[in-house]
Design a protein that fits this description.
With about 425 residues, this protein is α+β, with helices and mostly antiparallel strands. The chain has twelve helices and nine strands. A hairpin with a 3-residue loop joins strand 6 and strand 7 (about 350-355). Bound molecules: adenosine-5'-diphosphate and magnesium ion. Adenosine-5'-diphosphate binds near residues 382 and 383.
């Protein structure tokens, strides 16, 4: 292997390095709810590898400066859109200009032609099949290299061995194929994770549905009984009393269903003021049928000093989901022997504190350490995503979660949020 190939392979290492970074960023956006990363994570990979490739190029001759810059340039533009393409084009031209030489004009022409193609192709590219994606990116690449090589050979009289050109073309083509496949893999993995997180909520919704049908049947049976009594010969006072009982029971059933629907219905999330006390009350309403089914009681205690409010900023539905995930875990840890789940809400100078204490199985230190990692579960039918979602929601609200747990005694989750 001679030096051109070797040096180009080092260049390829820079691209792979930046790709690893991209994978970590994709993961971090979901696990840590880092919304600010969402927009520029795609830009980071192409720019980092573009700059690294160009700072450490390979000199085939004095005028032929080779590197793998077209790989990040083309893929960055195709995946990230023409705006990112434009940024990359400016970086590319600027860096190449600093290096100087007649080769600049060749590189500039080739990059501008690629840039214009990206402008038209970046939208349809995202919806293409992998085979067409590969075909398109390879075509752009070959076109770019051919234009710049032809121009360079016209502008200067360097004679390049054919072997060099063959190596240059093949490393570029293999490189872009490998990077496209890896990038597609990263994208698929991250959308899979996103779908799993959605599925986790659907699972909670279906668990609750089973217990709710049970809970609704009771008031309906009671009111049916009383309505039946009305057809018998009874005094007007008794009649009024029975009607009242029947109506109350029907209202109860309606409330249970309404609470459930508010939780289950998907909504567009926006940041707003949330009253923690109301949210807890609503979460308890939604979850109590499930608690009843498992023989678990729920108690609440609110320590509310004068004039204190439990107001903070956040996305209401998400916060609600976080509470339900945690309360549900508490209930599930007690389902074999029953017990009581206690929710304690207290307010301090600048913070609001919610304690969710159960008398369940508890966790070992090792389990506590793994809490919040995706897919960590000790349950046969668990998803191991509930706590991850909860952590990321609280993180998104600039709060934190502390855990105290003792095996065989129970667990206490403490959510600390700052007041608005
Ligand atoms: P899942 O409930 O689907 O298992 P979670 O992310 O909600 O996923 O929880 C992950 C794991 O953390 C659980 O499997 C359990 O081992 C542990 N865990 C969470 N909350 C509690 C709790 N209150 N008591 C005991 N173990 C808990
Ligand atoms: Mg759970």
């Amino acid at each position: 292997m001679d030096f051109v190939t070797k040096d180009l392979l080092i260049s390829f290492l820079f691209i792979l390095l930046a790709l690893c970074l991209l994978q970590i960023l994709y993961m971090a956006t979901y696990v840590y709810q880092a919304k600010e990363l969402q927009n520029w994570k795609i830009a980071l990979f192409p720019i980092v590898s573009l700059v690294l490739c160009m700072v450490f190029p390979v000199y085939a001759t004095d005028n032929n400066i080779w590197d793998l810059r077209y790989i990040p340039f083309i893929l960055g533009g195709l995946y990230g859109g023409y705006k990112l393409g434009l940024i990359q084009l400016s970086i590319l031209l600027f860096t190449r200009f600093l290096v100087g030489g007649v080769g600049f004009y060749a590189a500039a022409t080739a990059s501008i032609i690629i840039g214009i193609s990206i402008y038209f192709l970046s939208k349809p590219y995202l919806n293409m099949k992998l085979k067409n994606k590969l075909l398109l990116s390879c075509t752009l690449l070959v076109m770019g290299i051919t234009v710049s090589q032809t121009m360079a050979s016209l502008l200067n009289s360097d004679i390049l061995p054919m072997r060099y050109l063959v190596e240059y073309y093949s490393i570029n083509i293999f490189g872009i194929i490998i990077v496209t496949i890896l990038w597609e893999g990263i994208r698929t993995y991250s959308s899979l994770l996103q779908n799993l997180i959605k599925a986790e909520k659907i699972k909670t919704v279906s668990h609750l549905a089973a217990s709710i049908s049970h809970e609704v049947r009771n008031p309906l049976t009671t009111s049916r009984g009383f309505i039946q009594l009305l057809s018998e010969d009874i005094s007007p006072e008794k009649r009024g009393e029975f009607v009242n009982i029947a109506l109350n029971e029907i209202d109860r059933a309606t409330n249970i269903i309404n609470d459930y629907l508010t939780f289950a219905k998907p909504t567009i999330e926006k940041k707003e003021e949330i009253n923690i006390q109301e949210e807890i009350e609503q979460a308890v309403n939604v979850i109590s049928p499930l608690a009843n089914m498992h023989g678990v009681g729920i108690t609440q205690n609110i320590q509310k000093p004068e004039h204190h409010q439990f107001i903070t900023m956040g996305e209401r539905k998400k916060f609600q989901q976080c509470l339900i995930n945690m309360v549900k875990n508490g209930i599930e840890s007690m389902q074999s022997h029953g017990g009581n789940l206690h929710i304690d809400l207290s307010s301090f100078q600048n913070t609001i504190q919610i304690d969710i204490q159960d008398q369940g199985l508890g966790m070992s230190q090792e389990q506590i350490n793994r809490l919040g990692q995706p897919y960590f579960t000790t349950k046969e039918k668990g998803t191991g995503l509930g706590m991850m979602v909860s952590y990321s929601i609280i993180k998104g609200m600039n709060g934190k979660i502390e855990v105290k747990s003792e095996l065989g005694k129970g667990t206490c989750f403490r959510i600390i949020l700052s007041k608005e």
